[in-house]
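Quick entry between incubations.
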Amino acid sequence: MTDQNPKTLIVVTGPTAVGKTSLSIELAQFFNAEILSADSRQFYKELNIGVARPDEEELSAVKHHFIAHLSVHDYYNVSKYEVEALDRLQHLFSTYNYAIMTGGSGMYIDAVCKGIADLPDADPQLREELNLQLKEEGIEFLRAQLKLLDPDYYQQVDLANPIRIIRALEVILETGKPYSYFRDNTYKKRPFHIIKLALQLERNILNERINLRVDEMFEKGLLSEAESLLPYQKLTALNTVGYKELFDYFNQKISFDQAKEDIKTHTRRYAKRQMTWYRKDPDIVWFNPSEKVKIIQYIEQQRRHEL
RNA sequence: GGCGUCGUAGCUCAGUAGGUAGAGCAGAGGACUGAAAAUCCUUGUGUCACUGGUUCGAUUCCAGUCGAUGCCA
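Done. Structure below.
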Protein backbone atom coordinates (compact mmCIF):
# COMPACT_ATOMS: atom_id res chain seq x y z
CA MET A 1 0.00 0.00 0.00
CA THR A 2 1.46 3.32 -1.01
CA ASP A 3 -0.11 6.63 -0.31
CA GLN A 4 1.09 9.99 0.89
CA ASN A 5 -0.88 10.00 4.12
CA PRO A 6 1.66 9.88 6.94
CA LYS A 7 -0.87 9.83 9.77
CA THR A 8 -0.50 6.77 11.95
CA LEU A 9 -2.32 5.48 14.99
CA ILE A 10 -0.17 3.26 17.16
CA VAL A 11 -2.30 0.94 19.27
CA VAL A 12 -0.67 -0.45 22.39
CA THR A 13 -2.74 -3.09 24.09
CA GLY A 14 -2.31 -6.19 26.23
CA PRO A 15 -3.65 -7.63 29.46
CA THR A 16 -4.02 -5.58 32.59
CA ALA A 17 -0.83 -4.89 34.58
CA VAL A 18 1.45 -5.86 31.70
CA GLY A 19 3.04 -2.42 31.46
CA LYS A 20 1.09 -0.55 28.78
CA THR A 21 1.12 2.81 30.53
CA SER A 22 4.85 3.27 30.83
CA LEU A 23 5.58 1.96 27.34
CA SER A 24 2.95 4.26 25.84
CA ILE A 25 4.50 7.28 27.48
CA GLU A 26 7.92 6.39 26.13
CA LEU A 27 6.52 5.84 22.67
CA ALA A 28 4.57 9.10 22.84
CA GLN A 29 7.73 10.96 23.72
CA PHE A 30 9.75 9.23 21.05
CA PHE A 31 7.23 9.72 18.26
CA ASN A 32 5.99 13.12 19.45
CA ALA A 33 2.40 12.06 20.04
CA GLU A 34 -0.44 12.36 22.51
CA ILE A 35 -2.14 9.42 24.14
CA LEU A 36 -5.76 8.33 23.87
CA SER A 37 -6.86 5.97 26.59
CA ALA A 38 -8.91 2.97 25.49
CA ASP A 39 -9.68 1.81 28.97
CA SER A 40 -13.38 1.73 29.67
CA ARG A 41 -12.88 2.26 33.39
CA GLN A 42 -10.22 4.94 33.39
CA PHE A 43 -12.81 7.17 31.68
CA TYR A 44 -14.46 7.83 35.02
CA LYS A 45 -13.14 10.61 37.20
CA GLU A 46 -14.29 8.90 40.39
CA LEU A 47 -12.22 5.79 39.64
CA ASN A 48 -8.53 6.27 40.20
CA ILE A 49 -6.60 3.86 42.39
CA GLY A 50 -8.72 0.82 41.57
CA VAL A 51 -8.37 1.21 37.81
CA ALA A 52 -4.65 2.00 37.91
CA ARG A 53 -5.06 5.39 36.31
CA PRO A 54 -1.68 6.85 35.29
CA ASP A 55 -0.33 9.03 38.11
CA GLU A 56 0.13 12.80 38.03
CA GLU A 57 3.70 12.55 36.85
CA GLU A 58 2.74 10.26 33.98
CA LEU A 59 -0.21 12.39 33.02
CA SER A 60 1.91 15.52 32.90
CA ALA A 61 4.69 13.85 30.93
CA VAL A 62 2.42 13.38 27.90
CA LYS A 63 -1.01 14.78 27.19
CA HIS A 64 -3.67 12.12 27.72
CA HIS A 65 -7.19 12.04 26.33
CA PHE A 66 -10.21 10.12 27.60
CA ILE A 67 -8.99 9.82 31.13
CA ALA A 68 -11.32 10.95 33.91
CA HIS A 69 -13.46 12.80 31.40
CA LEU A 70 -16.71 11.17 32.55
CA SER A 71 -18.58 10.63 35.76
CA VAL A 72 -19.80 7.21 36.89
CA HIS A 73 -23.26 8.78 36.70
CA ASP A 74 -22.94 9.38 32.96
CA TYR A 75 -24.24 6.93 30.41
CA TYR A 76 -21.51 5.93 28.03
CA ASN A 77 -20.90 3.24 25.46
CA VAL A 78 -18.53 2.00 22.75
CA SER A 79 -20.25 3.87 19.99
CA LYS A 80 -19.90 7.22 21.73
CA TYR A 81 -16.26 6.38 22.21
CA GLU A 82 -15.84 5.52 18.54
CA VAL A 83 -17.26 8.89 17.50
CA GLU A 84 -15.35 10.90 20.07
CA ALA A 85 -12.05 9.13 19.53
CA LEU A 86 -12.22 9.52 15.75
CA ASP A 87 -13.04 13.16 16.19
CA ARG A 88 -10.12 13.64 18.56
CA LEU A 89 -7.79 11.77 16.23
CA GLN A 90 -8.73 13.97 13.32
CA HIS A 91 -7.92 16.97 15.46
CA LEU A 92 -4.61 15.54 16.66
CA PHE A 93 -3.55 14.54 13.19
CA SER A 94 -3.81 18.14 12.10
CA THR A 95 -0.64 18.77 14.11
CA TYR A 96 0.96 15.38 14.69
CA ASN A 97 1.87 12.48 12.47
CA TYR A 98 1.37 9.96 15.26
CA ALA A 99 -1.18 9.27 17.91
CA ILE A 100 -1.07 6.52 20.48
CA MET A 101 -4.07 4.62 21.69
CA THR A 102 -3.49 2.51 24.73
CA GLY A 103 -5.73 0.45 26.96
CA GLY A 104 -7.13 -2.95 27.60
CA SER A 105 -10.71 -2.63 26.40
CA GLY A 106 -10.58 -4.68 23.22
CA MET A 107 -14.05 -3.82 22.09
CA TYR A 108 -13.37 -0.11 22.35
CA ILE A 109 -10.14 -0.42 20.38
CA ASP A 110 -11.92 -2.43 17.70
CA ALA A 111 -14.66 0.18 17.44
CA VAL A 112 -12.04 2.79 16.59
CA CYS A 113 -9.96 0.60 14.29
CA LYS A 114 -12.71 -1.29 12.50
CA GLY A 115 -15.94 0.49 13.26
CA ILE A 116 -19.06 -0.81 14.86
CA ALA A 117 -22.63 -1.20 13.66
CA ASP A 118 -24.96 1.74 13.79
CA LEU A 119 -27.38 0.90 16.58
CA PRO A 120 -29.57 2.96 18.86
CA ASP A 121 -28.33 3.68 22.38
CA ALA A 122 -29.90 1.85 25.25
CA ASP A 123 -33.09 3.30 26.63
CA PRO A 124 -32.56 3.14 30.41
CA GLN A 125 -36.24 2.68 31.15
CA LEU A 126 -36.63 -0.16 28.67
CA ARG A 127 -33.48 -1.81 29.95
CA GLU A 128 -34.83 -1.65 33.46
CA GLU A 129 -38.09 -3.23 32.36
CA LEU A 130 -36.30 -6.05 30.58
CA ASN A 131 -34.07 -6.68 33.59
CA LEU A 132 -37.17 -6.86 35.72
CA GLN A 133 -38.69 -9.39 33.33
CA LEU A 134 -35.52 -11.42 33.53
CA LYS A 135 -35.70 -11.43 37.29
CA GLU A 136 -39.39 -12.21 37.54
CA GLU A 137 -40.15 -14.35 34.49
CA GLY A 138 -36.74 -15.85 33.87
CA ILE A 139 -34.52 -15.98 30.84
CA GLU A 140 -36.89 -18.36 29.02
CA PHE A 141 -39.42 -15.57 28.78
CA LEU A 142 -36.93 -13.24 27.12
CA ARG A 143 -35.75 -15.99 24.80
CA ALA A 144 -39.31 -16.60 23.67
CA GLN A 145 -39.73 -12.93 22.83
CA LEU A 146 -36.51 -12.89 20.87
CA LYS A 147 -37.43 -16.04 18.99
CA LEU A 148 -40.64 -14.38 17.91
CA LEU A 149 -39.21 -10.97 17.06
CA ASP A 150 -35.88 -11.95 15.50
CA PRO A 151 -35.58 -15.65 14.67
CA ASP A 152 -32.30 -15.08 12.80
CA TYR A 153 -30.51 -13.62 15.76
CA TYR A 154 -32.12 -16.20 18.02
CA GLN A 155 -30.21 -18.82 16.04
CA GLN A 156 -26.89 -17.06 16.57
CA VAL A 157 -27.05 -15.56 20.02
CA ASP A 158 -25.68 -17.17 23.16
CA LEU A 159 -29.02 -18.11 24.67
CA ALA A 160 -27.53 -18.49 28.13
CA ASN A 161 -26.33 -14.91 28.20
CA PRO A 162 -29.09 -12.59 29.41
CA ILE A 163 -27.15 -9.44 28.52
CA ARG A 164 -27.03 -10.37 24.84
CA ILE A 165 -30.72 -11.20 24.73
CA ILE A 166 -31.72 -8.03 26.53
CA ARG A 167 -29.61 -5.88 24.24
CA ALA A 168 -31.20 -7.40 21.15
CA LEU A 169 -34.68 -6.92 22.57
CA GLU A 170 -33.87 -3.31 23.41
CA VAL A 171 -32.94 -2.57 19.83
CA ILE A 172 -35.92 -4.43 18.44
CA LEU A 173 -38.44 -2.79 20.75
CA GLU A 174 -36.97 0.67 20.25
CA THR A 175 -36.77 0.54 16.47
CA GLY A 176 -39.42 -1.95 15.47
CA LYS A 177 -36.82 -3.73 13.35
CA PRO A 178 -35.01 -7.00 14.03
CA TYR A 179 -31.64 -6.73 15.70
CA SER A 180 -30.03 -8.74 12.94
CA TYR A 181 -31.07 -6.00 10.51
CA PHE A 182 -28.56 -3.65 12.13
CA ARG A 183 -25.69 -6.04 12.61
CA ASP A 184 -22.93 -5.22 10.24
CA ASN A 185 -19.60 -6.93 10.09
CA THR A 186 -17.98 -4.90 7.35
CA TYR A 187 -14.86 -3.08 8.43
CA LYS A 188 -14.82 0.65 8.07
CA LYS A 189 -11.78 2.20 6.42
CA ARG A 190 -10.07 4.84 8.52
CA PRO A 191 -8.24 7.87 7.08
CA PHE A 192 -5.02 6.94 8.88
CA HIS A 193 -2.67 3.99 9.20
CA ILE A 194 -2.99 1.69 12.17
CA ILE A 195 -0.13 -0.21 13.73
CA LYS A 196 -1.34 -2.58 16.39
CA LEU A 197 0.93 -4.10 18.97
CA ALA A 198 0.29 -5.91 22.21
CA LEU A 199 2.41 -6.66 25.22
CA GLN A 200 2.68 -10.12 26.64
CA LEU A 201 4.24 -11.71 29.69
CA GLU A 202 4.36 -15.30 30.80
CA ARG A 203 1.17 -16.03 32.70
CA ASN A 204 2.78 -16.65 36.09
CA ILE A 205 4.87 -13.49 35.84
CA LEU A 206 1.79 -11.49 34.91
CA ASN A 207 -0.07 -13.01 37.85
CA GLU A 208 2.69 -11.96 40.21
CA ARG A 209 2.50 -8.44 38.86
CA ILE A 210 -1.26 -8.44 39.32
CA ASN A 211 -0.98 -9.58 42.93
CA LEU A 212 1.65 -6.98 43.62
CA ARG A 213 -0.36 -4.24 42.01
CA VAL A 214 -3.47 -5.08 44.01
CA ASP A 215 -1.43 -4.88 47.22
CA GLU A 216 -0.13 -1.49 46.09
CA MET A 217 -3.65 -0.29 45.40
CA PHE A 218 -4.57 -1.00 48.99
CA GLU A 219 -1.49 0.86 50.21
CA LYS A 220 -2.54 3.84 48.12
CA GLY A 221 -6.01 3.89 49.65
CA LEU A 222 -8.26 1.72 47.53
CA LEU A 223 -10.41 0.90 50.55
CA SER A 224 -11.45 4.50 51.15
CA GLU A 225 -11.86 5.18 47.43
CA ALA A 226 -14.29 2.26 47.25
CA GLU A 227 -16.04 3.32 50.45
CA SER A 228 -16.72 6.77 49.03
CA LEU A 229 -18.40 5.11 46.03
CA LEU A 230 -20.52 2.72 48.07
CA PRO A 231 -23.69 4.83 47.61
CA TYR A 232 -23.39 4.32 43.84
CA GLN A 233 -22.58 0.61 43.94
CA LYS A 234 -25.46 -0.21 41.62
CA LEU A 235 -24.14 1.87 38.73
CA THR A 236 -22.80 0.00 35.73
CA ALA A 237 -19.49 1.84 35.92
CA LEU A 238 -19.01 0.41 39.39
CA ASN A 239 -19.50 -3.15 38.29
CA THR A 240 -15.74 -3.17 38.20
CA VAL A 241 -13.03 -5.38 39.62
CA GLY A 242 -11.53 -3.72 42.67
CA TYR A 243 -14.77 -2.06 43.70
CA LYS A 244 -17.50 -4.68 43.56
CA GLU A 245 -15.53 -7.01 45.84
CA LEU A 246 -15.09 -4.24 48.39
CA PHE A 247 -18.80 -3.46 48.17
CA ASP A 248 -19.39 -7.08 49.15
CA TYR A 249 -17.09 -6.50 52.11
CA PHE A 250 -18.87 -3.28 53.14
CA ASN A 251 -22.19 -5.08 52.77
CA GLN A 252 -20.81 -7.77 55.10
CA LYS A 253 -21.10 -10.54 52.57
CA ILE A 254 -17.40 -11.42 52.72
CA SER A 255 -14.39 -10.70 54.92
CA PHE A 256 -11.82 -8.07 54.08
CA ASP A 257 -9.17 -10.70 53.33
CA GLN A 258 -11.61 -12.51 51.09
CA ALA A 259 -12.37 -9.29 49.22
CA LYS A 260 -8.69 -8.72 48.63
CA GLU A 261 -8.21 -12.28 47.38
CA ASP A 262 -11.26 -11.95 45.14
CA ILE A 263 -9.87 -8.79 43.58
CA LYS A 264 -6.68 -10.65 42.69
CA THR A 265 -8.56 -13.63 41.31
CA HIS A 266 -10.98 -11.53 39.31
CA THR A 267 -8.15 -9.43 37.90
CA ARG A 268 -6.38 -12.60 36.78
CA ARG A 269 -9.52 -13.74 35.05
CA TYR A 270 -9.97 -10.39 33.44
CA ALA A 271 -6.44 -10.61 32.06
CA LYS A 272 -7.25 -14.06 30.70
CA ARG A 273 -10.36 -12.80 28.92
CA GLN A 274 -8.36 -9.95 27.45
CA MET A 275 -5.81 -12.41 26.08
CA THR A 276 -8.59 -14.45 24.50
CA TRP A 277 -9.82 -11.33 22.75
CA TYR A 278 -6.41 -10.22 21.44
CA ARG A 279 -5.25 -13.65 20.36
CA LYS A 280 -7.81 -13.79 17.60
CA ASP A 281 -6.81 -10.43 16.15
CA PRO A 282 -4.43 -11.15 13.24
CA ASP A 283 -3.29 -7.53 13.04
CA ILE A 284 -1.66 -7.62 16.46
CA VAL A 285 2.08 -8.12 16.71
CA TRP A 286 3.26 -9.28 20.12
CA PHE A 287 6.17 -8.01 22.18
CA ASN A 288 7.62 -8.38 25.61
CA PRO A 289 7.23 -5.09 27.53
CA SER A 290 11.01 -4.83 27.86
CA GLU A 291 11.60 -4.83 24.10
CA LYS A 292 11.36 -1.07 23.67
CA VAL A 293 14.02 -0.76 20.99
CA LYS A 294 12.52 -3.59 19.03
CA ILE A 295 9.08 -2.04 19.29
CA ILE A 296 10.28 1.31 18.00
CA GLN A 297 12.10 -0.40 15.15
CA TYR A 298 8.97 -2.32 14.30
CA ILE A 299 6.86 0.83 14.19
CA GLU A 300 9.37 2.65 12.00
CA GLN A 301 9.66 -0.28 9.68
CA GLN A 302 5.88 -0.53 9.32
CA ARG A 303 5.72 3.17 8.55
CA ARG A 304 8.35 2.93 5.84
CA HIS A 305 6.54 -0.03 4.41
CA GLU A 306 3.27 1.82 4.22
CA LEU A 307 4.46 5.18 2.88
C1' G B 1 2.34 -40.98 77.11
C1' G B 2 -3.19 -42.96 76.62
C1' C B 3 -7.78 -42.83 73.84
C1' G B 4 -10.40 -40.95 69.61
C1' U B 5 -10.97 -38.58 64.76
C1' C B 6 -8.81 -37.49 60.20
C1' G B 7 -5.06 -38.04 55.95
C1' U B 8 -8.80 -38.60 48.43
C1' A B 9 -7.48 -33.25 42.27
C1' G B 10 -3.59 -26.83 43.58
C1' C B 11 -7.58 -25.74 47.92
C1' U B 12 -12.22 -27.29 50.78
C1' C B 13 -14.42 -31.78 50.99
C1' A B 14 -17.89 -36.04 49.16
C1' G B 15 -17.73 -41.19 47.93
C1' U B 16 -16.66 -46.40 47.02
C1' A B 17 -21.84 -52.15 51.58
C1' G B 18 -14.01 -54.44 48.16
C1' G B 19 -14.16 -54.19 41.10
C1' U B 20 -8.62 -47.92 40.87
C1' A B 21 -13.29 -42.09 42.20
C1' G B 22 -16.53 -36.88 42.03
C1' A B 23 -18.48 -31.83 43.51
C1' G B 24 -17.52 -26.54 44.62
C1' C B 25 -13.56 -23.17 44.25
C1' A B 26 -8.83 -22.22 41.83
C1' G B 27 -6.54 -23.23 37.07
C1' A B 28 -7.02 -23.90 31.51
C1' G B 29 -9.58 -23.00 26.69
C1' G B 30 -13.41 -20.26 24.18
C1' A B 31 -17.40 -16.59 22.89
C1' C B 32 -18.15 -11.45 22.49
C1' U B 33 -21.62 -5.57 17.64
C1' G B 34 -23.79 0.60 22.85
C1' A B 35 -23.52 -3.19 30.48
C1' A B 36 -17.18 -5.05 27.90
C1' A B 37 -12.61 -4.57 34.27
C1' A B 38 -19.38 -6.42 31.91
C1' U B 39 -21.82 -11.02 30.60
C1' C B 40 -21.77 -16.06 29.08
C1' C B 41 -20.01 -21.24 27.50
C1' U B 42 -16.71 -25.62 27.78
C1' U B 43 -13.19 -28.30 30.71
C1' G B 44 -11.81 -32.68 36.63
C1' U B 45 -6.42 -39.36 36.21
C1' G B 46 -5.47 -38.00 41.02
C1' U B 47 1.15 -42.99 43.64
C1' C B 48 -7.38 -42.10 47.15
C1' A B 49 -0.39 -40.62 53.25
C1' C B 50 3.24 -44.86 53.56
C1' U B 51 4.41 -50.28 54.47
C1' G B 52 2.60 -54.94 55.06
C1' G B 53 -1.75 -58.51 55.61
C1' U B 54 -6.52 -60.79 54.08
C1' U B 55 -8.59 -61.33 49.03
C1' C B 56 -9.00 -63.38 42.24
C1' G B 57 -8.92 -58.03 43.20
C1' A B 58 -7.77 -52.99 48.48
C1' U B 59 -8.42 -46.14 47.90
C1' U B 60 -12.33 -48.98 50.60
C1' C B 61 -11.41 -54.33 55.51
C1' C B 62 -7.16 -55.48 59.24
C1' A B 63 -2.25 -54.30 61.48
C1' G B 64 1.81 -51.19 61.81
C1' U B 65 4.41 -46.46 60.51
C1' C B 66 4.35 -41.29 59.67
C1' G B 67 1.66 -36.61 59.76
C1' A B 68 -2.57 -33.47 61.44
C1' U B 69 -6.14 -32.56 65.12
C1' G B 70 -9.24 -33.16 69.65
C1' C B 71 -9.88 -34.95 74.60
C1' C B 72 -7.50 -37.09 78.92
C1' A B 73 -2.96 -37.32 81.64
